[in-house]
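Re-run with default settings, no changes from the original entry. Doing this only to confirm the output is reproducible before filing.
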Amino acid sequence: MTIRVVLVDDQALIRAGFKAIIGSQPDLEVVGECDDGLEALDVIRSSRADVVLMDIRMPGRDGIETTEAITADDSLAGVRVIVLTTFELDEYVVAAMGAGASGFLDKGVDPSVLLDAIRVVAAGDALLTPKATRALLGSLGEPGSVVPVDEGALEHLTAREREVVSLVGQGLSNDEIAEQLFLSPLTAKTHVSRAMTKLHARDRAQLVAIAFKTGLTQVDDL
């Protein structure tokens, strides 16, 4: 199955470079591109995108606002956003994750890392680099942090689901969770999905934040 990608960046040269890299892969295809966040949603809808590579600083509407608009639109519930920027600042990481992005990468990453990132988020996992994880952790005690948490919601988790959420917080993929808990990958994925539903987590990035904020995962676990 081909992963459909949309490029949203105001620099034509950047879009051309990404398009060439993505187009070299048989399982990936660039199905749309635009240079302004204002037109991004129309392009994403018409192209039936799976993954969006989103610049942060653009005219009209920036990448954070555009990401928020995507994640707030129920008709685009299956679309995953990777935010790409040249600005190595923690506030951008936190803002991107808070807006609902599934990943955050610097524009200077190796092509192989970019391609892997697209596949990771398309599969429903979050792409949390060490920098992004540190930024998330640093935000958890601040007002308006990445995700509000009702700690009472943990009461609805089974013991197995608590284990799974703890491992998600440590950055493990579904396959890695399955291996550690001696489960099938499908069973691990089911536990993750049920935990996200019970904790009202929009995506895996929010589940990571919840794991730390509720103490299911500790910094020492990393």
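The chain is about 50% helix and 15% strand. The longest strand covers residues 28-34.
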